[in-house]
Amino acid sequence: MKIIVGLGNPGKPYEHTRHNIGFDVIDALAEKWGTPLTNSKFNGMYTTVHRPEGKVLLVKPLTYMNLSGECVGPLMDYFDIEVEDLIVIYDDLDLETGKLRLRQKGSAGGHNGIKSLIQHLGTQEFNRIRVGINRPPAGMKVADYVLAKFSKEDQVLMQDAIVNSVNAVEASLSKPFLDVMNHFNASK
């Protein structure tokens, strides 16, 4: 079984903000696969999808970003999912808006959601799809920036990023993540 986790914050005020791009990708996958996230466990919403490639768990932690590991770690234990079968989708300030960067391991890079996952999983070695949101303009606090909605111009770039993220997830179900990573990181 694979587990695909999109990071974000629960609640209406956070919908479609920069920090919630992981939730947006999970919603796009759930819509494409025709399966809403209706199950709840360990302070997360999830659904189990039966795909030709095997079972896939789509997850949105409802712990708020900084405590994401409190949901993901117990879910992985409960469903007996290995860390190599995890893909985490989240926003990245160090990438241009709409750009994807896939990685198999790495530090949290200042991202508190990833920091929480590393702490609860006990490893930095898990697959990631980082979605670029760019840095805030001069004088704007990072917290205000990541919790703001995208500009109209950026919304177009992010729609493409969501589609590309969905494609990367689907490719990873039948191919080694390293191959998917090399393909998506080489394109664009």
From TrEMBL:
Keyword Coiled coil: no
GO cellular component terms attached to this protein's record: cytoplasm
Residues carrying the site annotation Discriminates between blocked and unblocked aminoacyl-tRNA: 9
EC number assigned by the record: 3.1.1.29
Catalysed reactions listed for this entry: an N-acyl-L-alpha-aminoacyl-tRNA + H2O = an N-acyl-L-amino acid + a tRNA + H(+)
Primary localisation category: cytoplasm
Compartments (UniProt record): Cytoplasm
Annotated GO MF terms: peptidyl-tRNA hydrolase activity; tRNA binding
Residue(s) at site: Stabilizes the basic form of H active site to accept a proton: 91
Active site, renumbered: 19
Keywords noted in UniProt: Cytoplasm, Hydrolase, RNA-binding, tRNA-binding
GO biological process terms, semicolon-separated: protein quality control for misfolded or incompletely synthesized proteins; rescue of stalled ribosome
PROSITE patterns in UniProt: PEPT_TRNA_HYDROL_1, PEPT_TRNA_HYDROL_2
The organism's place on the tree of life at top rank: Bacteria
Residues reported to bind tRNA: 14, 64, 66, 112
Pfam families documented for this protein: Pept_tRNA_hydro
PANTHER family assigned to the protein according to its UniProt record, in alphabetical order: PEPTIDYL-TRNA HYDROLASE
Known function: Catalyzes the release of premature peptidyl moieties from peptidyl-tRNA molecules trapped in stalled 50S ribosomal subunits, and thus maintains levels of free tRNAs and 50S ribosomes.
Record family assignment: Belongs to the PTH family.
Subunit organization: Monomer.
Protein name per its UniProtKB record: Peptidyl-tRNA hydrolase
Organism name: Lysinibacillus capsici
Lineage: Bacteria, Bacillati, Bacillota, Bacilli, Bacillales
